[in-house]
Specification:
- This protein is α+β, with helices and mostly antiparallel strands.
- The chain has a domain at 4-61.
- Helices cover 21% and strands 29% of the residues.
- It has a five-stranded antiparallel beta sheet, with no helix packed on it.
- Bound molecules: zinc ion.
- The site of zinc ion has 9 residues, from loops.
- Zinc ion (ZN) is lined by residues 9, 11-12, 14, 16, 41, 43-44, 46.
Length: 99
Amino acid sequence: MQTNQRVRCPNCGSYAWRNYFTSDDFSHRICPSNQVIQIECPACDYLMLMCSRNARVIEAYAPGITSPYLVLSIDSSQKTTLKKIILSTSQIIRKLDLP
Ligand SMILES: [Zn+2]
């Protein structure tokens, strides 16, 4: 069985490697079958680790693709507004008395 293939990088289009392997490091709830696909691009540093059975992503990194959780740089007046929003939100949560 071939365990690695030369493929095109989905991020930059250069040649990348797709490897298939098993590792006890990944035999957890994300990939219980312990069969992992890794796509790695030496040109742009793209990395994708996913379970080959359920297609769930274990780890991923793609340069140039921003995260939806990216914290944008803000100026001081925006910081003050943001602090007020956080404070009022925490007061609302306290009033709700959630467990
Ligand atoms: Zn690439």
